[in-house]
């Protein structure tokens, strides 16, 4: 694109002389449908286009200033190092000046420029995105959600009527692509799932509101809007222009990352991230709405790609590739809505027997949800996962509460199609029996994996533990014993040694 086709204010921002700092090489211009982005080397400047798409309105100077301020405010939460400020563009005669003394004609958001190779999407493509990055991302996003504001107005966006409006709109806007990029069966079944969920699960959505999981979230937290820069995970470019896109269930954000990895056929990585996020947040109940948001994020990606198929200016080669991409996302959206058979796996064994290591490996291989009793206990007790609990956290009453919570989560989630690994000692028949009874009463498959290793191995493992959420030490281990399995339990037990 030549600069002669651009508005004068854009041409001015392509001139290095307008900036009060050195410009490295030629200024690079990136255009989206809503903004011009200028890369100068050390800094980035974003100018909003004077457009109104209904869901986004930058049509007046006043509105562009407001949304620049919102972009700065909102992104300071997850990427304060990147978002530096708002700079007015002034005009003196026929000359545009950054932060001059003339009449203000527009505003730009000034950001720290960072290497594009630090995007998580780029790191994944190069094979440099590690499991530790995903564990760190889970902590960052859980902390982001915990501190995200909410109030009665924000919570109102968790009502079924609000949620389904945008989802139904997606279906209306993609009817024309049935038989082109998705099948009639996929469309009908995906829509039937959301219709049924909204009609029959009002109590579930009400619970999400009551427990304040509708917050001012990021709204667009996919792998291209996350970077690992200066050894820190940063969440940037959140939705500032539309409240319904930002005032959402926290699982709405989580679903973007899950969908991104699933679309890359890396469900092992999405499982690793999901289990880490759930453990950090304690929001295992959120799994009940996660398929809805997984399907929604994938469907939107399919919809936006489908629109290219109707654009006469798009080359046929691009359309062919877009059709294949859209089809893949429509199929993924449909897959998220398909029924699954749930199962409960009870881990059992003393501290240091390898329960959590095996449970984590099994979860990655099968897509299961791993729920560790140590995390459940600390969430119940209000103790940070990386802090050691006092004696009250390990009282008989708190232990009973912990196992009651595991029972509730296990049966609730398994009844909705999840394989749930309850990762705890389950060293007493009195702890195992309620799970077995309730699972069998609900026709949920149940299996017990018993980790049986020599006492000296237990002691070595516990002594060498570092950075684990478990507080069990050698003194705790010395007081542990395991109650043998009953005759009714034995058919369910698989011993690992």
UniProtKB/TrEMBL annotation:
Stored InterPro entries: Aminoglycoside_PTrfase (IPR002575), Cell-binding_unc_protein (IPR052732), Kinase-like_dom_sf (IPR011009), P-loop_NTPase (IPR027417), Therm_gnt_kin (IPR006001)
EC number(s) recorded for this UniProt protein: 2.7.1.12
Pfam families hit by this protein: AAA_33, APH
Occurrences of domain Aminoglycoside phosphotransferase (ranges): 125-288
Residues annotated as signal peptide: none
Record's keyword annotation contains S-adenosyl-L-methionine: no
Pathway entry: Carbohydrate acid metabolism
Reactions accelerated catalytically: D-gluconate + ATP = 6-phospho-D-gluconate + ADP + H(+)
GO MF term (any one): gluconokinase activity
Record's keyword terms, sorted: ATP-binding, Kinase, Nucleotide-binding, Transferase
GO biological process per UniProt: carbohydrate metabolic process
The family this protein is said to belong to: Belongs to the gluconokinase GntK/GntV family.
Protein name in UniProt: gluconokinase
Organism of provenance: Leptolyngbya boryana NIES-2135
């Amino acid at each position: 694109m030549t600069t002669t086709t651009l508005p004068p204010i854009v041409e001015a921002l392509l001139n290095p002389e307008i900036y009060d700092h050195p410009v490295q090489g030629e200024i690079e211009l990136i255009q989206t449908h809503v903004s011009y982005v200028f890369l100068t080397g050390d800094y980035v400047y974003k100018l909003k286009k004077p457009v109104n798409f209904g869901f986004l309105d930058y049509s007046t100077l006043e509105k562009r200033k407001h949304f620049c301020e919102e972009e700065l405010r909102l992104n300071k939460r997850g990427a304060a190092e990147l978002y530096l400020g708002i700079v007015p563009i002034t005009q003196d005669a026929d000359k545009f000046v950054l932060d001059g003394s003339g009449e203000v004609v527009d505003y730009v958001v000034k950001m720290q420029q960072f290497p594009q190779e630090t995007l998580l999407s780029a790191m994944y493509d190069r094979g440099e995105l590690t499991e530790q990055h995903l564990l760190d991302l889970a902590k960052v996003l859980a902390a982001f959600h915990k501190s995200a504001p909410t109030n009665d107005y924000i919570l109102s966006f968790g009502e079924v009527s609000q949620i389904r409006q945008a989802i139904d709109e997606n279906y209306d806007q993609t009817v024309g692509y049935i038989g082109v990029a998705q099948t009639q069966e996929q469309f009908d079944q995906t829509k039937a799932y959301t219709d049924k969920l909204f009609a029959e699960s009002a109590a579930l959505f009400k619970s999400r509101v009551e427990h304040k999981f509708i917050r001012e979230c990021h709204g667009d937290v996919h792998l291209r809007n996350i970077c690992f820069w200066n050894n820190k995970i940063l969440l940037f470019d959140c939705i500032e222009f539309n409240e319904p896109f930002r005032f959402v269930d926290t699982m709405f954000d989580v679903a973007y990352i899950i969908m991104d990895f699933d679309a890359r056929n890396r469900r092992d990585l999405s499982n690793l991230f999901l289990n880490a996020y759930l453990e950090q947040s304690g929001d295992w109940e959120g799994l009940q709405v996660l398929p809805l948001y997984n399907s929604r994020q994938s469907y939107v990606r399919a919809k936006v790609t489908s629109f290219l198929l109707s654009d006469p200016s798009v080359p046929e080669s691009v359309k062919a590739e877009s059709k294949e991409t859209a089809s893949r996302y429509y199929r993924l959206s449909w897959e998220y809505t398909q029924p699954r058979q749930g199962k409960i796996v009870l881990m059992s064994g003393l501290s240091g027997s390898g329960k959590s290591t095996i449970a984590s490996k099994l979860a990655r291989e099968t897509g299961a949800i791993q729920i560790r009793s140590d995390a459940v206990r600390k969430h119940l007790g209000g103790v940070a996962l990386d802090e050691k609990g006092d004696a009250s956290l390990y009282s008989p009453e708190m232990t009973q509460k912990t196992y009651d919570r595991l029972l509730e989560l296990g049966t609730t989630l398994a009844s909705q199609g999840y394989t749930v690994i309850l990762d705890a000692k389950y060293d007493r028949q009195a702890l195992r029996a309620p799970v077995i009874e309730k699972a069998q009463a609900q026709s949920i498959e149940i299996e017990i994996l018993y980790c049986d290793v020599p006492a000296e191995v237990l002691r070595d493992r516990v002594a060498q533990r570092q950075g684990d959420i478990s507080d069990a030490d050698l003194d705790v281990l010395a007081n542990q014993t395991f109650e043998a399995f009953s005759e009714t339990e034995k058919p369910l037990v698989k011993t690992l040694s």
